[in-house]
Amino acid sequence: MAKQVFTGGALNVTNLLTGLTGTALTKALAKIAAFEAKVEAGKSASIKIGADTFQFKKASGVQAVTFTNNGTSFDTAAALTTAATAPAPTPTTAPTPAPSATQALTSTNGETLFGTSGNDPFTATVTTATNAVDTTFQAADIIADSSSKDADTLTVSSATADLSTVTATVVGIENTVLNFTTFAAPTVAAGNIRAGNGTVN
To answer: In this structure, are 62 and 112 located in the same domain?
Structure first.
């Protein structure tokens, strides 16, 4: 430990404050404030910083003292205290993206629906296996998405069990849900549904 004579000017308090929190930080800041008050009043004072003790010998007149902490300068101990005890900034989080709008197939055979980078919902209905006007899940339709990091869902509501001739091409949709309102065993052209998980209700 070395003793150094302090004659005014900037005092680097980084080693004194590094790693301190709570009561320990409060005590260190109080010592700094007391040291400042004595030095600026021309009174003898000392303060230990790391392995060094800084001594100020009694002098006539007001002596100036400033502080540096981790490369930042402070004109007063009060300013240093304010900075050292300021609450940590609240981490910012990315806003939750708005849910993607539902895309619904219509009765037009040959439609193509593309997903976005979000979790896209798609819907389709089947009332008969003969491409009736109110059947929207048809063989020439395409539902696709290029993102593998989202959670798209296609929900098909069907009143008929036989979807072998009306199953659209489904590519890159993570979840396909087939809801049947018939008790007959369902038939689906499974080869048209590529990738993702399938659920049959």
So the answer is: no
